[in-house]
Amino acid sequence: MKTLANSLTLIGSVVLIGCVGYLMGGWWDDRRWGWVVIGAVVIVANLGVVVVRLKPTPKPRDWTIDEVRAVIEPIHGEVAQIRTLRRADKGLSLVQAATLVSEARGDDDR
């Protein structure tokens, strides 16, 4: 389902870039500079969406509890520890990071 959403977002962004680009030609000829600026902003924003959607997502690495403890040990507070672990592994989801931190802290028995 996530692939379908990404594909539809990509297609929509490309179609919008094409339509606004076409309209900008007429606005340029009519000297409607305000609309040209707005069109340029819309195109740049959608180019950003395309770049973000096409950027590959890194795969999370396999963490051991000892490695997680070594990373989060100097950090106080569970939220800060989760944030630190996610900075160390860009492919780690929020749920995975929270689970690993909870296991490393020994909070499973609550």
Automatic annotation (TrEMBL):
Keywords: Membrane, Transmembrane, Transmembrane helix. It comes from Williamsia serinedens. This is Uncharacterized protein. The chain crosses the membrane at residues 7-27, 33-52.
